[in-house]
Fold this protein.
Amino acid sequence: MPLKNTESRYGWVSITLHWGMAATIVAMFALGLWMRGLSYYDEWYRLGPYIHKSVGMILLALLLFRIVWKLINPKPAHDPDLHPWEKISASAAHLSLYVLMLAIMVAGYLISTADGRAISVFDWFEIPALIQGLPNQEDIAGEIHEILAWALIAVAAVHAAAALKHHFFDGGTTLVKMLGRSRRQSNHPQKP
């Protein structure tokens, strides 16, 4: 499998970023929901947010790298049997996913730095509090973070459902390409 994307398939960097970030974001969503029910005396009351913030900042760095990688790599061609509205919908969904991820991570940063403290990323390094002291910063950013997290999960679910429908019912190869195989390597029959 090539490092970079080609016209017929995604490279291993794009594939690793896609699947790794998808799994991590779902896990972060579950962790965020679970943390809301912790009591002050629970040992995870501090550990959960520490992990959530650390992973969130790593995801932000990976997202920025992913955007740059996307800009400097060719995009595998859409399946020829896609309708124009499907191509537009796919592009809109991808753009929405990127915007939502970025906005969620910025909101998380604003929650975590509202009191002026830096974010420690697994005690490896710190992200300084560049924006702090805005009126109700933590509360407003917290509400935005939660709303956008639900929106991201909803858009990702629609994205996944569309990919599965396109693969299993329409005979498309988009999912095959995201697994690192080209169309001609696929045993998946094409639509006549």
Q: What stands out?
A: The two ends are 28 Å apart (CA to CA). DSSP finds five helices and two strands in the chain. The domain at 12-185 is CATH 1.20.950 (Fumarate Reductase Cytochrome B subunit). The longest strand covers residues 119-121.
